[in-house]
Design goal:
The structure holds two protein chains of two kinds.
Chain A: H1 9-16, H2 21-39, H3 41-56, H4 64-89, H5 97-114, H6 119-144, H7 148-167, E1 172-173, H8 177-184, E2 186-187, H9 198-224, H10 232-255, E3 259-260, H11 261-279, H12 281-291, H13 293-297, H14 303-329, E4 331-332, H15 340-350, H16 362-381, H17 386-410
Antiparallel strand pairs in A: 1-4, 2-3
Helix pairs in contact in A: 3-16, 4-10, 4-11, 4-14, 4-15, 4-16, 5-6, 5-7, 5-14, 6-14, 8-14, 9-10, 11-12, 15-16, 15-17, 16-17
Chain B: E1 4-15, E2 18-29, E3 33-37, H1 44-52, E4 61-66, E5 69-71, H2 76-81, E6 84-87, H3 99-103, H4 118-132, H5 147-160, E7 165-169, H6 177-192, E8 196-200, H7 204-210, E9 213-218, E10 221-227, H8 233-241, E11 259-269, E12 277-287, E13 291-296, H9 302-309, E14 316-324, E15 327-329, H10 334-339, E16 342-345, H11 349-353, H12 360-365, E17 373-374, E18 377-378, H13 380-393, H14 410-423, E19 428-432, H15 440-455, E20 459-464, H16 467-473, E21 476-481, E22 484-490, H17 496-503
Classes of the chains: A mainly alpha, B alpha/beta.
Chain lengths: 414, 509
């Protein structure tokens, strides 16, 4: 009973119908653009942060090498953010991902270096171990009913401890080349040496084409089912802007070392998980559970099973992040993954996920992660110390969520 | 010669779209026990919330005169300062604190230096416990004592506030007979000490036992105030239900088909207190095209029956058999129940029925996503089309199906819930309080939808606390009391009076 008389739709709709038609059409479009901008506020925030730091760093931030670094240095956080936002949408949290990443990294060191297994087998085994960690945590959360906060807090300690056990108080290093490519490999010079890598440019162009085709098809489909679509001019403007961004990004990568392997992994993950969250029954069940667990249960959704698989998936992605990080450092050490969970959680929340669950997107989490990445890189370039970087990132998280809360209150939501 | 401790004059309270109280007058004499009777939703609780300041002065019209002076309460603390204490049906005790701590919550017994004096706290508490006849150590935790004793702790707490007017909202609803008797005796005992009580109840036998005066409220209006010597069960029942029943329900001619659902010997126990029977050996059946009502007072086990049937969503140690078209089916999980053709629309839309932060479309598809799946993906344009169909056919008032359900009015939310279940294509729909919190016009629409479903050959079970509604739309009604079916009548033979008798029928002891 927080709000005894929220305005109902009939009322607000009825009020809107008094405006004369000409004005109505124009304001309609304007409202659409504005509400679209409001919904994609996070995107604008990313642009703003990029612009701000380009100025503060005299353009150094946008140099090809730094753009490439943005992906490579934050790739593992972005991988974690994907799993984390799913967990958060369902109304849980996972504090253990940093420790799990360290644990799996250590295991992979044992497999690939100490036992000398082939790199692909080491990677596969490590991913399986990550999924098993998820099985363990998912069991306690979904079937025993212990809050995820507690289970994963315990997991944070357990797997940090196990990582040290596996490492036996030493670092494991010198991984095989193929393994290391996960973290710092590039796909380039496939067609010989050029000033601008043609493969990267080609992939960039392909991405733009796929994006445009997919957007146009979606729009056509919606028109066919006589749904409302956004004004055509705005639709085209958006496509042009996004295409330009991709083009610039591809150009930057092409003039540096080419496509980072981490980016390929990320691209596949984003694509697959976006489809999972938007278009599969499993994904829709996650949103339903986060929005109202009781209603989901009484609609026949097997909430425990969904919770369980969410954590298995999180374990898998934590393992993948651990591999990428280990590969990048070429070292499995005891401090690996320290604070990853906090950055991944921040990314999800900055990206618009709701603390109570039910709201959030993969894309939002990725952009949230990129904002953190730009802050990291930008401030490093400026020579700001780690202590202030921490403080600034904390402040950004707080403001982002405060903005979200304010926005919802204004729109009369919950 | 009247000596009123309390007079409420011309109280009118309006909620958006609903007039909950219309010009209600209530006079309570000093030192009496005054009972307030009325059906669920008649306005009893609203009246008490106005009196106790839950609805502050200014949000209602009319005047409250307490002990000869006009009062304007801003909140509960205000009314408590004057000596008016309300004890709600859901007790407001903190389970992990001790009895003494609960009694003096927000009224802590402080000693030197502003620190809590525990000896004094416990000593004072034990004096109060003696007054209410509760033999428990004041340091015992609330969760370790039963509901009956908790009720007594609430009264002790009221006494600690130097209560002059004690209001009890359905105090015996959750109590067994022994505890009820003890509580009623205590009320009479306190009356001897000069404490005036208002007791809200619909249990006629206990009203006759304790009340000096009875006021009946119906549809937000005072019907009459009856003195003890004139109180009869028939008169109260007539006052409670007597209303114009015409033209509030659409015409309905049943075309009954085969028997769809049969439930045999359905029994369920309380989820925590697994020895307590909540649903007691219920047998019922529904035919195709039939609208069957289940009537029962609060706490009779209506919702508990429906939810235990629907995927064992309530209760423990559930037993009994369910048959669909003569074939036994299992309903152990909600998914299984849905699969076997049963749907249940909950009485509490907002907590159990809808995802309020999602749009109409996704709420409608929530229980049937599998139907929209194609090559492992949800066909979202198809989903939109389906939702749009329901928006039109159910007359959901929203510009499109992308509106969040949290922004809809109660009636439209209920239409979304019904759409969700109709789309799951069940054989039997159980509708729990389908018109609760919905205005009159939307109620009519919901009834029309129910008729349409019956005409399409579905079996419908309607659970409602509004007797006129059940008698207006059903073909046959069951009465439920204390978890048992106490009677079954075709609607032609059912009258509000006969139903209320069945609904208040107690277990033979």
């Amino acid at each position: 009973m927080s709000n005894p008389n929220p305005p109902t739709v009939e009322e607000s709709h009825a009020a809107g119908s008094n405006i004369n038609p000409v004005q109505n059409k124009f304001t309609d479009r304007l409202t659409h653009v504005l509400s679209d901008l409001g919904r994609n506020g996070i995107f604008i925030a990313l642009v703003a942060v990029v612009v701000l730091f380009s100025f503060l760093t005299d353009g150094i931030l946008l140099r090809p090498q730094n753009i490439s670094n943005l992906v490579v240095q934050n790739g593992y956080i972005l991988v974690l953010a994907i799993g984390m936002v799913m967990v958060i949408i369902a109304g849980h949290i996972d504090l253990s991902v940093g420790s799990v990443a360290a644990f799996v990294g250590a295991c992979s060191g044992v497999f690939a270096v100490q036992w000398g297994l082939p790199w692909w087998l080491a990677v596969l085994l490590s991913l399986v171990i990550g999924a098993l960690v998820g099985v363990w945590q998912g069991f306690w959360i979904a079937y025993v009913g212990i809050p995820a906060f507690i289970v994963t807090l315990a997991g944070m300690l357990i797997f940090r401890g196990l990582a040290l056990v596996v490492l036996g108080n030493a670092n494991i290093g010198s991984f095989p080349t193929e393994y290391r490519a996960l973290g710092n490999g590039f796909l380039s010079n496939v067609f010989g040496e050029f000033e601008l890598d043609p493969l990267t440019l080609g992939v960039g162009a392909l991405a733009i084409v796929i994006l445009v085709v997919q957007q146009v098809r979606t729009r056509r489909g919606r028109v066919k089912y006589s749904q409302d679509v956004e004004p055509l001019a705005w639709f085209i403007t958006k496509l042009v802007l996004i295409s330009a961004a991709i083009g610039f990004f591809a150009y930057a990568l092409a003039s540096y070392k080419g496509i980072p392997v981490t980016l390929i992994i990320l691209g596949v993950l984003v694509l697959v998980y976006s489809i999972v969250m938007n278009r599969t029954v499993f994904g829709r069940h996650i949103y339903a559970i986060g929005g109202n667990r009781h209603a989901a249960e009484l609609s026949g959704i097997k909430t425990r099973r969904v919770d369980f698989w969410l954590f298995v998936n999180m374990g898998f992605l934590a393992a993948l992040a651990g591999l990428i990080f280990t590969a990048r450092l070429n070292l499995a050490g005891p401090k690996a993954g320290d604070g990853f969970e906090l950055e991944a959680i921040s990314a999800a929340f900055i990206g618009g996920a709701a603390v109570q669950g039910g709201v959030g997107t993969i894309g939002g989490a990725i952009i949230g992660g990129l904002i953190i990445g730009v802050l990291n890189n930008g401030m490093s370039i400026m020579g700001i110390g780690i202590e202030w970087q921490q403080a600034v990132k904390g402040l950004v998280l707080l403001l982002a969520v405060a903005f979200d809360v304010y926005n919802k209150r204004r729109s009369g939501g919950h | 010669m009247t000596n009123h401790i309390l007079e409420m004059r011309g109280i009118t309270k309006t909620f958006p779209g609903v007039k909950a109280l219309a010009n209600v007058n209530l006079g309570v004499e000093r030192g009496e026990v005054h009972a307030i009777c009325g059906e669920n939703g008649a306005g009893k609780s609203t009246l008490m919330k106005v009196l106790s300041g839950v609805y502050p002065h200014g949000t209602y019209d009319g005047a409250i005169v307490f002990e000869g002076e006009e009062v304007e309460f801003k909140d509960l603390t205000d009314s408590e300062a004057k000596g008016i204490v309300i004890i709600h049906q859901e007790l407001a005790l903190s389970p992990y604190l001790s009895i003494a701590e609960n009694i003096f919550l927000n009224n802590e017994q402080k000693g030197a230096g502003g620190l809590i004096d525990w000896n004094k706290t416990n000593f004072e508490a034990s004096k109060l416990l003696a007054r209410v006849g509760l033999k428990e150590n004041p340091t015992t935790k609330i969760r370790e004592i039963g509901v009956g004793k908790q009720q007594l702790v609430e009264i002790a707490k009221a006494l600690s506030k130097r209560v002059k007017l004690l209001i009890l909202d359905e105090p015996t609803a959750a109590l067994n007979d022994e505890d009820s008797d003890h509580l009623l005796d205590l009320i009479l005992h306190l009356k001897g000490q000069g404490i005036t009580s208002i007791i809200i109840s619909h249990k006629l036998n206990e009203i006759k036992k304790v009340a000096d005066t009875v006021t009946v409220i119906r549809d937000g209006k005072t019907i009459e105030t009856i003195a003890k010597q004139d109180v009869t069960e028939d008169r109260i029942i007539k006052d409670m239900v007597g209303r114009d029943l015409e033209h509030r329900y659409p015409d309905h001619t049943p075309h009954l088909g085969e028997e769809l659902l049969r439930v045999e010997d359905w029994t369920a126990h309380h989820p925590q207190d697994t020895s307590r029977v909540v649903v007691d050996n219920v047998n019922l059946h529904v035919r195709a095209g039939e609208i069957v009502g289940i009537a029962g007072l609060m706490g009779a086990g209506r919702t508990e029956f429906a939810m235990s049937l629907f995927g064992h969503s309530y209760g423990s140690r559930i037993s009994g058999k369910v048959f669909l078209r003569g074939k036994e089916i299992k309903t152990r999980t909600v998914a299984e129940a849905i699969q076997n053709g049963i749907a249940y629309a909950t009485e509490d839309r907002k907590t159990y029925g809808l995802n309020l932060i999602e749009d109409i479309k996704r709420n409608i598809s929530m229980a049937s996503l599998k139907k929209l799946e194609k090559y492992g993906l949800v066909h979202d344009n198809e989903e939109y089309a389906v939702a749009n169909e329901y928006r039109k056919s159910m007359n959901i008032k929203a510009p499109n199906v992308l509106v969040k359900t949290g922004k809809l009015s109660g009636g439209n939310q209920q239409k979304v819930v019904l759409s969700k279940w109709i789309y799951s294509d069940p054989d039997v729909l159980i509708l729990d309080e389908p018109t609760r919190g919905i205005d009159v016009g939307a109620k009519y629409e919901i009834y029309t939808i129910i008729n349409r479903l019956a005409a399409a050959g579905k079996g419908i079970i309607v659970i409602s606390s509004e007797l006129p509604e059940l008698l207006g739309i059903c073909d046959r009604v069951y009465a439920l009391s204390e978890g048992r079916i106490t009677g079954e009548l075709p609607v032609e033979e059912a009258t509000p009076e006969s139903m209320l008798k069945l609904m208040t029928m107690e277990k033979p002891r």
